[in-house]
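Reading a protein record of the kind used here takes only a little practice. Think of the row as the fold of the chain written in a discrete alphabet. With that in mind, consider the following protein and its fold in token form:
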Amino acid sequence: MREHKIASGDISRIIVFVSGTTQTLCEPLEVHRKPATCQDANRSLPYLLGVAATKGNILIKDITPEALKDQATLEFARRIVPSLDEEFNKANRMGPGKITIELASGKSYSKQVDIAYGDPQNPISWRNLADKFLDCVSYSAKPISTQNTDKLIDMITHLEEIEDVTEIFRVLP
């Protein structure tokens, strides 16, 4: 969507090619399009793609009881269509993956990713990792100050330079 500057409202459906593990994240389809619990949402490809398409990202707040009622996400999840393709069966591992986005205009775009983002061969960027950390910290049972989260991110980014890794734990509450 970012690559082709596609707005969620322009999409008529997204076909996601599934097999093995990814297929289990879509079946039964109607249940996965409207997950009942946070655990169900976390294991629902149609719901998670609905979140990503409507919000541009998936954060912890998108997998809360309140978020499960978001009509825009639920409506978009109905546009997710799984298509069985054994090419994508990797013995219960994630990747490769492929989607086709079909627009109301009749245009369509397909993209295949052979190595999942976050895999050691396709590592997550430090910026994205820090953003995920900050999202998680915002739900911490023991709040961490902004100053300490910034310090933790800097320490972890420069982990090889720290003489004693227990310094990291001293910053935590």
